[in-house]
User: Fold these one by one.
Assistant:
Number 1:
Amino acid sequence: MILQRLQPVACRAAWRTRVCVRQEQSRFSSVPQQPVPALAQTLQGYLQALEPLLPPDELAHTRRMVHEFGRPGGLGSQLQKRLEIRARNTKNWITDWWVQWSYLENREPLAVHSNPAISLPRRDFNDWRSQLVFASKLIAAVLDFKAMIDRGQLPVEQMRGRPLCMELYPLMFSSSRVPGPKHDSIAHYGRSRRSPTHITVVRNYQFFQLEVYNSDGSRMTESQIHAQLLRIRSQSWKTDKEPMGILTSEHRHTWGAAYNRLLRDKINRESVRAIETGLFSLCLDSPVMRISDEKYASRKAAQVLHGGGTFSNSGNRWFDKTLQFVVGEDGSWGLLYEQATTEGVQVASLLHHILEYCEMPDPKRAPLVPLPMPKKLYFYIDKEIKRDIELAKQNLDILINDLDVNVFNFKTFGKELPKRNKLSPNAFIQVALQLSYYRVHNEMCPSCDIASQRMFRGGRTEYIRSPTNEALAFVLAFDDSSVSREVKLHLLREAVEAYVALTDLALKGCGIDRHLLGLKLQAIEQGLSIPKIFMDTGYGYATHWKLRTGQVPANTDSVMCFGPLVPDGYAVCYNPQADHVHFSITAFNCCEETNAETLAQTVQSTLCDLQELLEPTV
C-alpha cells in the first residue's frame, strides 16, 4: 500500500495534528472528493501502459480502438460526462461500484483468492496456557482500539500534514459478508440501536459467543477474559465435531445455496447471526506443524491464511467475518480479514496498537462478580448440510494443496540502501520484481501494485502498473554484458523515477484503471453494449494480472500473504525494514509455468545484483 506526498487540500482544520474521527466524519470538506480524471489523460496512460506488453501489430490495433473511443463527441466523451455528473451527486463516484464489482460480485472462494492474512513474529510460548494468556491480552487490546474509535479519540491519519479519510475504521467491527445467489452483501451491526457486546471464539471447530462487556457497560479485564477462555477450552475438548466454518471457504454460489439451507433451521439461524454480529472472531488453533526453521515462516503464514486444511485448523475459520484473529498454541499468531469492509492500512494501524498494548501490564483487577458462561453455538446438521460440508472439505483441501506459499526474510539490506542512493525504496523493489519476473519467464507481464485513495472522501484503492517502457529498457540491458555499469545505473534511475511518477499520478486520483472500470460500468448502467475498447484482446491481456504486488509497511517484522489473482500468476507482498525486507510469494502448483520458490530465489539474487550495481564491492 503506497502512502506518499499529497496535493494540498483547502481546509484550515486539516492542519491539526490530532482530529477526532467523529469530527472528520462530520466535516467531509477536509477531505476532497475524488476527481474523475480527464479522458484524454487516461487513454494516453492506458496506451503507454500497453507499450512494454504488446507486440507492435496488436498495439496498433488497440491504438485505433482507443482513438475511436476517445474521439470528440464519441462514446467515451458521452460516458465521461455521465461519470462527471455521477461524481457531483455521490460521495465517491467509483467506490461503491468498485466494492460491488471487485468483491461482492466475485464468486471465487474468499479463502486464498480474496482474504489477505498478516502473520506476525512468533510469541515466546509453546503451550495452551500461555496461548490463552496472550489471547486475553489481544482481545483487551482490540477492545481498547475500538473504544478509541467509539469515543472519537482515534487521531485522523495524515499524509504530510493532510488528512486521510477515516470512514472504514468503525466498519471493522460487527461486520460480515453475507453470501447471496448472484452477489454478496455486507452486513454491519455496529450502528444498530443495541450494538453487539460479544465476540466469537472458535476452538476445535466449535463456536462460542463470549460477552466481553460487563452488565454496567465496562469492558472486561484481561483476567476476566482469561477466565472465560479457560471455560471455553474446558467445553471444547472433542475434535469430532463437524467443521461448520469450512462452508464459508466455498465458491460463493455454492456457499450461498448452502447458507440458505442452513438458515432454514432456527438453531442454525441464531448461531450464524451470533457469528455475523460479533465484534470480531478469535481462532484458537492447534500448533503449526514444526519443520525446519526456514519452512516454518511459510507454514505459519499459510496457517493464518487458510488454516492448514481440514485435518488442521481450517474448521476454525469463518471466512466471511471482517476480522479474525488467529492464536496458535505454538506462539504463532496473526490476522485474517475480509476486504469488502476494510483494508491493509486500517488493519496495520490496529495491529500496531495491539503490539503497543501487549507491552503494558494489565491495568485493572477483575471485579468480584460472577460471569455468565460463554454460550456454545449449536448447529443442526441434516443430510443436505452434511453433504455441503463434505464437498467444502474436499474443495478446500484441493485449493490449499494447490497453493505454494514461500515466506522469507531478505537480510542483506533493507530500505536504507535505496535511500542512500536517493531512490524510492518502494519503486526500487518494484523494479527489482520486474527484473526478477523477466529473469524467470523471459517476458514482461501485466503487474499491479496498490495505491491508497484515502486522501479522497470514501476513497479505497487504485492500481499502479509496474511495467513501463523505462523498466523494460532497464530489464533488457541489465544482463547484457556489453552495456556499461554507468548506462545500467542511468536506466535503473529512469525506471525508478518512472514508477514514482505513476505513483504520484495515482495519489492525485489520476490513475487509469479505476477510471477505465468506471467508464465500462457506466455503459452497462445505461443499458449500452460494452464498448469495443473493453472487448479488445489488448484490454483482456492488460488486466490479466500475472504479478500482483503490495507493500504494507509496518513497524514490526510482519508479513502479509494472499493468493494470486490469476491461475498462472504470482502474488508478492513485502514489508521493508531499515536493514531487511520481509517477502511472501504465492503461486499455484497446478500451473507448470509458475513456481514460488524459483521466483523467491530469483528475487533474492536480483536484489543482491542491484546492490552490487549501486555499491560495487570491487
Number 2:
Amino acid sequence: MNFSSLPPGSVTASPAPPVIVDDFQMSCRFSNYGDHPPEAFDSLTCGTCFFYIFMLLDHYKNRYVTDLCEDNSGILICPIDMNMDFCTCDNRSLVYNLPEFALNSSRITPLNRLDLDPPLPFQFELIVKDCCSAARYCCRNTLVKYHHRHDDSPCPATWDGWNCFDSSDEGLVVKQCPNYIYGGTNVKTDYDRHSKKLCQSRGWDLPEKTGGMKEYTDYAGCMQNDDAEARLLAGMLTYSASVIFLVPAVFLLNWLRPIRYQPMFILHRHLLISCLLYGVFYLSTATLFVVSFAPLSSQVYQNHIFCRLLFSIQLRYLRLTNFSWMLAEAVYLFRLLHTAQHSEGETMRSYKIICWGLPGAITFVYFVVRGLNDDVGMCWIENSTVAWVEWMIFAPSLLAMGVNLLLLGLVVIILVKKLRCNPHLERIQYRKAVRGAFMLIPVFGVQQLLTIYRFSNTYYQVTDQSLNGLQGFFVSFIVCYTNRSVIECLQKWWNSHQEKSALGAECRQRMSIQESGKLILKSPPLTEHVQL
C-alpha cells in the first residue's frame, strides 16, 4: 500500500458537495469535502477513516467497491462481483459506520458486522475509533474555533482524513504520524516520523498529481522504516551464516563415533540443534510473512492462527530451548569441574527431557493464556500488551541468563584455583584459562545480558540483531570446528581413510600382478601333431 498521499478522489464516487453552513452556525472543514456541521462532520470523517486505513490495501481495494454516501451517513462497501443495481446507499445493509459517530445509527450497519475477505484484524474497530475520535477532537477544539475568528492566514484549519492541521502561514507544515494509520501493525511513532502539508499564498497546495483540484498531504515520511529494514537485513545475513555453519557442525558431532555418546558432546549437539532450528524458523517466518511481497503477509494482517503458531514456536519455544541448553552447558561444566568426575556412560536423558520439554510446556501455557487474555496483535510478533502474560517467557529467560552468569564466574574461580595449586604451570596457562573463559560467553549466552534492554537507536538494534544471529556461528566454531577432540577425530578418520585407500590400491596392484603371472605360466594350446 502506498501512503505517499491521500487524495480523497480515490473513492469511487466524487466527494460530496460542500454543505452550505450559516455563518453563525458551527462548522468544521474537511479537506476536499467542504464545511460540515459537527455531527455530519463526525459521521463523514469516521467513514473515511475506515476507508483510508483499511480499504486502500491491495487485498481489499481489488475485491470491493467503496463509496461515501452523499448524506454523510457512512461508507458503502460492495463485493466487486455484486450487481451494481443493488450497490447503492439506499441499501442500508451495505452502508457501514460506527454507531456512536453516525448521523443516524438506524440508517447504517454497525462496522463490527462487516465481514470482508480476508478478515479484518480483531482490533480494527478500536483502530477506526481512535481515528474517528481524533477527527471529532479536531472539529471541536480546532476547526470550530477557526470558523468563528478572523484569521489572515492563507491556509484554513482543516482535517485531511488522518491528521488535524491548524491555520497556517506560507511554508511547510509538519505533523507527527498517528499510530492508527498503520492499521494495527505495531509500527510506533517513536521513530519520529512525520507527514507534510504545503501552505501557499493561495491556500493549501493543489499539486498537479491531483489535477490541481484537490489538497494533498505527503505521508511518505510516515512509511520510512529504515531501522526495521536494516535490522531485518542484518538478521537475514547473520542467521543465514549461522545456519550454513551449524548444519555441518551438527552432522560432525553426530557422525564421529568416538565423541558421539560423550556427555559433553551430547550437550553440544543439542545446543547446536536448538540454534539451528531457531535460525531456520527465523529465515522461514521472515521470508513467508515479513519481507516485501511475502506470500503470506496477509496472514500477519489477519492475525491468523497459523502465523501465530509459527511465531510462538520461534520467538517463545525455540528461544527458551536456546536458554535451557545454554544453562545445561553451564551446569554440566560446573559440575564436572567441581566434582572432577566424568561419567562416560551418562545418557543425559534428564537434560533432554528438561531442556526440550519444559520450554514446550511453558510455551503451550503461554499460547493458551495469551489467546484468552490478549488475542490481538499482528501474529504476536510483538510482546503482549498484558505484562504478566509476557513475563511467562521473560522470567525463565532472565533466570537462565542470571544463573549462567553466576556459573561462568564460578568456573573462572575454579580454573584459577586449580592453576594456583600447580606451581609447575607456566604463566601462559593463566592466559589460556582466561581465554577459555571468554570463549564460554557465547556458549553460555551471557552476552545477551548486554542487549536485554533495546534502545530505539538503529545502530544499537542492528548490533543486537547481529549478535543474536551470529551466536550459532560462534558456538559452532567453539564447540566443533576449533575443538581439539573433534579435530583429532577428524585427523584419525582421515588417516584411516588414507590407509584404507593405500591398502586397497596395494591389493588391487597385487591382484593385477597375480593375474598377469597366471597368463604367463599358462601353456599355449597344442595345434599340430608330430608324425613318425
Number 3:
Amino acid sequence: MGFIVLFLLLATLCSSELENNSQEEALYALKLSLNASKNQLTNWNRDQVSPCTWSNVYCDPSGNIYQVSLAFMGFTGYLTPRIGALKGLQTLVLNGNGITGGIPKELGNLTRLVRLDLQNNRLTGEIPSSLGNLKKLQFLTLSQNNLNGSIPESLANLPSLINVLLDSNDLSGQIPEGLFNVSKYNFTGNKLNCGMNYRKLCAYDIADQGYSKTAKTGIIVGIVLGLVVIICLGGLLFFWRKSYKRDVYVDVAGEVDGRIAFGQLKRFAWRELQIATDNFSERNVLGQGGFGKVYKGVLPDGTKIAVKRLTDYESPGGDAAFQREVEMISVAVHRNLLRLIGFCTTPTERLLVYPFMQNLSVAYRLRELKPGEAVLDWPTRKKVALGTARGLEYLHEQCNPKIIHRDVKAANVLLDGDFEAVVGDFGLAKLVDVRRTNVTTQVRGTMGHIAPEYLSTGKSSEKTDVFGYGIMLLELVTGQRAIDFSRLEEEDDVLLLDHVKKLEREKRLDAIVDRNLKQNYKIEEVEMIVQVALLCTQASPEDRPAMSEVVRMLDGEGLAERWEEWQHVEVNRRQDYERLQRRLGWGEDSINNQDAIELSGGR
C-alpha cells in the first residue's frame, strides 16, 4: 500500500514538472517568435528555476501561469502555435506591437482564457473558428489589424463574452447575430454587413448612450448600470479605506511601473525626465517646432523616449485642464498615430512623453540625411502616403470627439523601425494657448501648409488637415519644402503647390520628382499621387475630399472620376481668365501671375 502511495506521489510530481517544462518551453518559443531583441525579455532564460520569475509573467501559488502581458514592446515577429500549451492562461495581452502573421488556431486550446487583447498589430488572415472553444472568454479585442474573411459563427456561442472589438480590419460578410447581444461591440472600419441593417448598429456600448440601440433601452440600462457602479464603488472605497493606506498597484497593460495614473498613461516626475534627457541637453534635441522642443531620452530600463517640452502654455484650468486634454489625446490609438506614453506637469512646465521613432521624421529622410544614410525610396513614400491618410482618417472619422491636427506636414509624420508612417503632434493645438504664440498670426501651423480659409478666418476643420496632407504629398514626390525662396532666382513660383500645378499643366511631371530617387519610380504612380494632392489642395474646403475618400483614391478607387471633374473646373477657370485678358489687354505672363495669386493669396 505504501509503495502505491509513493508511486502516485512521484507520478504527480513528475506530471507537475512536465507541465512546468511545457509552460517554460512555450514561453521561450513565444520570445523567439516575437523577435525579441537582446535587450527585451532578458530574464526569459531557460536556465531560470521557474518561468514564474520571468518579467511580465504572472503565476498562481501552484506555479500555473495565468497572465502574460507584453503590450507596447515593439515586437515585430509572429505568434507561435506553441502558445497553445499554456493551458492555465487567463489573460493574454499583446496589443500595440508590430506582430505579423496569423492568429494561431491553437489559441483555442486556452480554455481558461478570460481576456485576449491583440489590437493594434499587423495580424493577417482569418479569425480562427477555434476561438469559439474559449467558453470563459469575456474580452476579445482584435481591433486595428489586417484581418480578413468573415467573423466565425462560433464566436456568437461564447456564453461569457461581454466585450468584442473587431474594428479597423478588413473583415467582410455577415456579423453573427449573437454578437449583437454583448454589452459592448465595435465592428466599424470593415466591410461587414451592418451599415444597411437599421435594426443593428456597427458599434454599441452599454455604458455609452451614443451607441445605444434605442433611447429607451439605453436609459434603462444606463440607470441600472449606474446604480450597480455606485454600489460597487461604495463597497470598494469602504474596503480600501479600511485595508490600505498606500498607493494602489495593479497590472495595467502598457504601464511602465503598474501604477494607476490616467488609463494607460504614466505621470512622470520632473526629475525622471531631467535625468533621461541629460538635463534637457541641446545634444539630445531631436527637433523644434511651434509647440516646443523635442528631446531624446533613455529611461532606467533602457527604453528610448522622445520628450516634448511645450512652450507658450497657459490654461485657465491649470493642471486639471491639461490632464483632461492629455487624456483626450491618449484615447486616439491607431497604428499610424504616435502613441502617448505619459506626461509631466509642474507649476511652470508641461511635458509629453512618446516612444522614440528611430527613423525620425519624413522631412528628415527627405532633406536632412547625413552622408551614408539611405534615401527614402519610392515604395516607402507610397506607404507613407497611405499610412498618413489612414491616421488622419481615424482622427477625423473614428475618434469621439474627433481631433483636428492643424499642422499636417512631413516634419510631423514620423517613421518607426519598419518605416511605417506615424502621425505625431495631433491634438496639441488644444494644449497650448494660441493667444501667446510667438508666430505673427494667431493661426497654428506652418506657412505653405496652411489652408487659405484657416489663415483668413482662424477657423479650422477636417478640411484644413486635408489641405496640409495634400502639401505633404507634394513634399513626398518632390523632396522640396512647401515654400522655397531659392526658386525666385529662376523666376519660378515660391510656393511648391503653384510650382507643381504649373508643371502638371505643362505635362512635365518628370521635372518635379525628387532627384534623389534617380529615376527609380513609376511615372503613372507619381501622376496618381500628384492628382490626389491637387484634389486635396483645392481653394474651397467644400471641394476637397474627406480623408476616407483619400484612402480609397490611393487604393485606386474613384480617383479617375474626381480628377476628370477637377480638370473640367480648371479649364473653365482658365477660360474665364483668358476672356479677362482679352477684355483688359493683359499678357500671358499676367494671366499666369494672376493664377498663382488666386491659388495662394489666402496662404
